[in-house]
Amino acid sequence: MCGIAGMVRAEPTAAIEEGALLRMARAIVHRGPDGFGLALDRGAGFVSTRLAIIDLPHGWQPLQTSSGNLLVYNGEVYNYPELRDELTRAGQTFENDSDTEVVLRLLEREGLDGLQKLNGQFALAWWQAHERRLTLVRDRFGVRPLHYSLLDDGTLLFGSEAKALFASGEIDAEPDLQGLDDVFTLWGSRPPQTPFKGVNQLAPGALLRWEGGEITARRSWWTAEYGKASTEAPGDLEELIRDSVRLRLRADVPVGSYLSGGLDSSLISAIAREQVGSRLQTFSVAFRDPVFDERSQQETVAKMLGTTHHVLDIGPTDIAAGLPLAVRHAEAPIVRTAPVPLSLLAQEVRRQGITVVLTGEGADELFWGYDLFKEVAIRELHETDPERALGMLEGLYPYLGADGARRGPAWERFLLETGARDDPLRSHLTRLEATATVKAFYHPEVAAELDREASERRLRAELPDAFGSWSALERAAWLEVKTLLSPYLLAAQGDRVGMAHGVEGRFPFLDHRVFEYAAKLPPERKLAGTKDKIALREVAARLLPEEIAARPKQPYRSPEIAPFFQPDSPEWVEELLSPGGLAEAGIWDPQRVEGLARRCRGGRATGIRESMALVGILSTGLWHRAFAADGASAYPAETVEPRVRIDRRADIAKEEVA
Amino acid sequence: MNDTDVKAELRKYVEENFLYLRPELDLHDDEDLLQKGILDSLGFVELVDEVQTRYGVTVNDLEITEENFGSINAIVGFVDRKRAAA
Question: Cis ω on the peptide bond leading into residue A555 (within 30° of 0)?
């Protein structure tokens, strides 16, 4: 696991400032605190910061081959030993034991078709020196980030994080209103958009090719496809998950596991424990507020598995204190505080000497665990049996609409009659509408400048051709993977907060084989009525106590409003809510924000809409302070010596003279 | 507290807690709070709670309707009827 960055100029004779590359490395040193490497070619430069996990003594990057090809690569390809064997049988020789070399040799031999063979999470930049061609690739679900900017002179900058691009000194961090509006529509910017002007992100499962100062190709090499459900289970799910965990335990350092107390992470931890033994360390977030806390379930599983269990106890002060760092690494405003506890947990993992953790992320999207999928099923049922549908709705949300309001007309209308039946986004309209409340706080000038419908319109325009032929639940699953899992959960709650502390998350459910299995699984083996993740629960029932295997989904949430209105809350909270603080970013209207702040201070604001608005407003202020005021000077150049230094400029000059 | 006081108090409550997002809106006492988008379902529940606490009236399930809580005038009428019946 690493950070990567670099720049390529349209003209080979154009200079690359080595100091710029060193600043880019420094900006993402948290992703790879074990050392860094540098490569300079004519009109091209690359850096890699390394978190050493596989082939510790070797495995340094950039890696080059005698053909002049070069690779910087962030991530893991878990099936690299099998691919190495396959390539060896075909006559390939290797210089080290790293997965990096396997990826580079595979690309050299098979080109981009070879990507289909990779099972893992990665972002890479492949430089073909003779052709002066750069190819950027991102893994199927976008576990690892990859940003780029094409400058007016044809220079392409790229980096794991946007801050590496700003560190180059070639582009400034300026807010992009439409990219920001994505966050307040869908919780995260949708590729290629980011909240920064001129900075793009490569989409999950996509590749980009740059040649001669132009982007010559940008296409998907893998897509999440549905409409393939069969009438029988497509094989043994337990065996598949075991194999996925087995591959993801491959590391030359100890691997830990997150334990939320729910089904998914418990199942992954149980399988990991079988394979690793009692040395497995598990990590949990516990909240002092009992509404959010799952510690008793976490302890049940940890005790049963006999792991060395670590609990990080989180109070309101921790959430507020941890928000600035989480936002700095998310590189975007956020509307939930949920990334903060995960950032603090990663910090604890690192403190315990662990750099790799397994998590249960992905199971709810693949096996339809979220309440959102049940809402879809209930809406479908409401067409034919409204009474039964309403009964199921009450069972699903017993805690909402207290005091009898659950049967009220507003309640029924809100959940059941949202959107037209044939609206492709119907499953997500409730979330979109709730999130859009945040936009009501825009400064009038921002509201006038923005097209507030553009984000939703673009999503509608980019639905796959086959979308309409999928079932309502499959459509909901696609939307959940594309709009929430990749741009938000795997980013702000995943890679960014883990790598902020040099901790790599691994996601056994996001093995593409598991995705393809789940897509083929008969729908009733995923969701029947409001019984969810049925096939997965059957696997869990064989490995876990019944109270865990049968436990209903508890959405992972973190306290949202109270942390910012404690007597010892950080000073920046009131600063960023004041007219002066709001004027810094200029996104929010002081009058409306004052109304919200008054309700928050008075303890009146308790709903999700106002909590999203508050966190969105505060995080926008923190994000703006972290970036927009920054220039390259915010990132001092790396001062330690590189572990690898490749300078091909002189060699090429000599070749040309000869 | 007469109807005029109740109305003024409710209006202030709605303005401070829901209308702060729509400062440009000139809300009439008969206008539908749900249809105008001033309240969502959670805001509706919050309003019902507030009426119960502030005016000491008990609201049963069947009374949580738009007829009773849909506008400022509707709420004033509802509180009036509940108090008269008490």
Answer: no
